[in-house]
Amino acid sequence: MAPPPRSGDAIFANVDRVNAELFTLTYGAIVRQLLTDLEEVDEVNKQLDQMGYNIGIRLIDEFLAKSNISTCVDFKETAEVIAKVGFKMFLGVTASVSNWDPEGTTCSIILEDNPLVDFVELPDTCQGLYYCNILSGVVRGALEMVSMKTEITWVRDMLRGDDAFELRLKLLKQVPEEYPYKDDE
Amino acid sequence: MPAVYSLYIINKSGGLIYHKDYGSAGRMDTNDSLRLASLWHSMHAISQQLSPVAGCTGIELLEADTFDLHCFQSLTGTKFFVVAAPGTQNMESLLKHIYELYTDYVLKNPFYEMEMPIRCELFDINLTQAIQNDRFALLGR
């Protein structure tokens, strides 16, 4: 009875969008302001991650509502869905998943194209900055709301001279959804 | 006669965060609506455990003599349920639509705090519209 899942392209074509340049410039302004306010690059990384997390815990519901996606069978499917549907739906780019570890709990999401960095060059004073750290926070927050605790780090960053953006996803633990009805504990 | 009597939204811990009556049938005072919400939350959880069906996600429809209660739970644990006239059709798609309105007008409102009672005028307006449209669609059939 449930409607079939929709592809990232189909959703992207149907939602209201803002001008990409406005989005890119707004994000740039936020990062710039954080650098001014917090002064320390590490603090800015932390703050961007926290902002992303706060977005992620809300965004997940929109993602579920609009994509009609039901429960994923394993973390592999989850990663594929994030890359193929999630990134397409909200950023308009498709990512790929690779580098699985044998246990199937760690993988990489690779972004070849990233609208956030269209006009960005990192100055020497900001070499430690993970400019797109908001994205890792979004993914972490979103997964936490569907009972997956993850750790997400940047492995490759085009702003640091790499050939792509690579996010390393590590599933720490899956919180069971059942209520903890344990009278004897 | 309105088809949908009232709408409830329960957060993942079982607190009532939204309640609205449409029409005059089945109206309840604040205490009763809170009671219904927490009762439903618990019954929903128990039904998952009791169900003989593996992977059951809880009660979706409760049919009574005087009303039907349709429930939808999102994967994040928020429950939406409507109390409607017996035999009212298309409630699944209405609930799905309400979920989308919730993501747009509640979650995207920067001043809404997660898990707290919903006081968003835009959400109210769009909700009323959705429920009215649903009623007209029903009349048209």
Q: Can you offer a commentary on this structure?
A:
The complex is a heterodimer of chains A (185) and B (141). Chain A is an alpha+beta fold. Chain A is 45% helix and 15% strand. Chain A has a domain at 46-174: 2-Layer Sandwich (Muramoyl-pentapeptide Carboxypeptidase, domain 2). Chain A has a four-stranded antiparallel beta sheet, covered by helices on one side. In chain A, a hairpin with a 7-residue loop joins strand 1 and strand 2. In chain A, helix 1 runs parallel beside helix 4, helix 2 (20-38) packs antiparallel against helix 3 and helix 3 (41-67) crosses helix 5. By secondary structure, chain B is α+β, with helices and mostly antiparallel strands. Chain B has one domain (4-139): Beta-Lactamase (2-Layer Sandwich), CATH 3.30.450.70. In chain B, helix 2 (91-107) packs antiparallel against helix 3 (121-140). The mean pLDDT of chain B is 90.
pLDDT < 50 runs, ≥5 residues of chain B: none
Strand neighbour order, sheet with most strands of chain A: 1-2-4-3
Give the helix proportion of chain A (percent range).
40-55%
CATH topology of chain B: Beta-Lactamase
Question: Hey, which two chains have the biggest interface?
Answer: A-B, 19 and 18 residues
Distance between the termini of chain B: 15 Å
Uncertain regions spanning at least 5 consecutive residues of chain A: none
Oligomer: heterodimer
The CATH homologous superfamily name of the domain at 46-174 in chain A equals: Trafficking protein particle complex subunit 3
Characterize the overall form of chain B.
globular
Number of strands of chain B: 5
Q: H/E series of chain A, N to C?
A: HHHHEEHEE
Which CATH top level class of chain B fits? Alpha Beta
Q: Mind describing the biggest β-sheet of chain A?
A: 4 strands, antiparallel
